[in-house]
Write a structure and sequence with these properties.
heterodimer, A: about 220 residues, alpha/beta, Rossmann fold, 2 domains, 5-stranded parallel sheet, about 55% helix, globular, B: about 230 residues, 6-stranded mixed sheet, 4-stranded antiparallel sheet, 7 helices, 10 strands, about 35% helix, about 30% strand, binds adenosine-5'-triphosphate, binds magnesium ion
Chain lengths: ~220, ~230
Amino acid sequence: MDIFYEKFSTLLDKEDKENCVSFIMSLFQNASSPNDIVNVYTKILARALNEIGCSIADRNICIWKEHIRSSIVRTILENAYPFIVKIRNDIKSTNGKTVAVICPDGEYHEIGARMISDFFSLAGFESIYVGASTPKEEFINALNYKKIDIFALSITNYYNLVSAKKTITAIKEKAGNSVLIAVGGQAFNNNPSAVSSIGADILLHTFEDIWNLGNTMKEDK
Amino acid sequence: MDNILELKNINKIYGNGEFKTQVLYDVNLNIEKGSFNSIIGESGSGKSTLLNIIGTLDKPTSGEVHINNIRTDSMKRAELADLRNQTLGFIFQFHYLLPEFTAFENILIPYLMKNSKPSKEIVERANELIELVGLTKVKNNLATKMSGGQQQRTAIARALINNPAIILADEPTGNLDSDTTEKIYTLLRKVNESFGTTFIIITHDRRIAEKADRNIEIKDGRINIDILR
Ligand SMILES: Nc1ncnc2c1ncn2[C@@H]1O[C@H](COP(=O)(O)OP(=O)(O)OP(=O)(O)O)[C@@H](O)[C@H]1O
Ligand SMILES: [Mg+2]
């Protein structure tokens, strides 16, 4: 993967959208298992977003450049969907459980959440990506129109743990323990105890965590 | 790390007899020296009550307050006044500047409470602070002849004049526009970094809260969430 990473990060650093997208698409075409896709996500795309820094010469356009890189990766993620579906159907492991992936109110960092949503698909869930900064009333109302087994909340900015707690409290009031609340994201790096203090049931870090969750939920179906 | 502040089992009950209301319940909180903290929470949750107890402006009904390892909730009035003057700086949403004094004179007030005449050093310090908060041009204006943001920056410089170890701020940007809020935040951060001043700031402003080192949410008189950046 390292050699692919080097190539991709060079293209991304140059903001060469066309070649970034076609390079990753060719990797997807060669993917044959969920792990192949997951590796592209974590070891190339996420790593590049995290590691490409800002040079001193560019210090006044850091955010500008970061947004361009994010937007290129978003295009890639949109185009990944057919490959996700194909691999998921190949392994035929749908477990009949529905997960809604959401960023709580105020959280606009959505790339992590989108990736997680695809991980859930690959692990056999029906995964609905709801989107950035979803007001908590909307989650609750959604429970009326669709059966949801898991709410997965992705939280990057630690301050959004506050709104996440409000959201989780509201979900539990409405649905009791019939929905599982999963959480993940960088906000927990310095706040491991926040998982329980905001009322979540489980912290998911890696694809393996999601895969294992899929297995346990299949068993108790 | 050293704690500059420790609260132990703080309870606060207002009123007496039939009209008692409990506003704080068993609050335990330690604040590290040099840290930049924000207190958030809904209106009426007890934030100002807590900050006033921290600042020794009010006493807890029960529990202990320790500042720099000294217990303050049982101190005498005169001792408290000294402690406040030397160790604590206050910034409020409404700045209570003295209208008939200039910005420069207002900044010197905490010093003049203790000393009859400003020393050369303190005049220098006042000028440095004026520079720091960007008020050089209006320093000789009367408090009433300044904009809201300028008055707020005057209040910040005033809170800093005695070089306090802790700054307590209650919605310091509550009535300011977002650009000025950003500037005030940057200024407070600069003070935090250059003097190692500990900050405890009550704020409804997301832009300040999310940039603090730590957020403590008060809900119905209890700590509901306590998180680190
Ligand atoms: N002197 C007082 N006597 C009686 N009750 C009081 C007194 N001061 C405050 N309270 C009550 O204590 C509760 C907490 O008030 P406090 O001022 O601490 O809230 P707050 O969190 O600062 O709210 P806000 O965001 O609106 O400033 C409120 O219900 C208030 O009515
Ligand atoms: Mg208040």
